[in-house]
Amino acid sequence: MRSRNPVFSRRGFSRDNGYAGFNTAPQAGGPAVATQANPYAQPTAGNPYAQNPYAQAEPQHGAPPQAPATTGRMTIDDVIIRTGSTLGLLIVTAALSWALLPVDDANISRSYGIGIGAALIGMVLALVQAFKRKPTPALILAYAAFEGVFLGVISSIVDNRIADGAAMQAVLGTMAVFAGVLVAYKAGWIRVNRRFYGFVMAAALGFILLMAVNLLFAVIGGGDGLGFRSGPLGIIFGIVGIILGACFLALDFKQVEDGIAYGAPREEAWFAAFGLTLTLVWIYMEFLRLIAIFNSSD
Predict the structure, then answer these.
(1) Cβ–Cβ contacts within 10 Å for residue 7, how many?
(2) Counting Cβ atoms within 10 Å, is residue 43 exposed (0-12), middle (13-18) or buried (19+)?
(3) Does the pTM exceed 0.90?
(4) Each residue of 45-56: pLDDT tens digit?
């Protein structure tokens, strides 16, 4: 079973139970795991990290034992720094596109076209990175930059033409969901197991299929297609989308925790940052859409 997020389906972040396995002992300071019941251990032949370049060499005769080496392994600081870099770049490009691409009547078509173009480029970059075996920081940062342009244009349109203050409300909503899920996860109120994973995957697949059908009908017949993204149905599906985003965050937190505990290489922090950025963009867009629907119905 693979992760919901394609970036976590690469080596080390995927196992049959949906979580990470690196065939190494947990790092110092990581979550306590019973060695004899390690659900993540893999046979040496199939473990890409079996020949651990960070492992301690055999001590010389008579030399005192040394603590296990942890240099080169992913830490929570690595994840925070990389995630901050991607989100920071996304915010900067969003602010620039908001300021430099006006959405008045004379320029909205051009600005909207640029935003959609940036979204398509960002999607292509995300797909390329998702199917690479190793993270490419330049590719991930380029995705964040183009996604920021798209979010800046869309946010400006909603904020200036539909609901004043919508972008800030969506940002606050996204931050609240992130903080709430993090607290609930750390407190043990959310237990990410196979049943949780299967439920989220099934719900996400159904949600995406319905949105694809709605988009198809919208392209053929115009308007909002089957009405899944506007009116009462749009509100329901917007709330469902936010709940799914919160579930995706819990999966992301679990996989980051496992990667740290079982000795993922430091470069895997870029995959973690990429996955968290994708999820936060999802949640932000659902909040922005909900706000636009509520204000359009007034």
Answers:
(1) 26
(2) exposed
(3) no
(4) 444 444 444 444
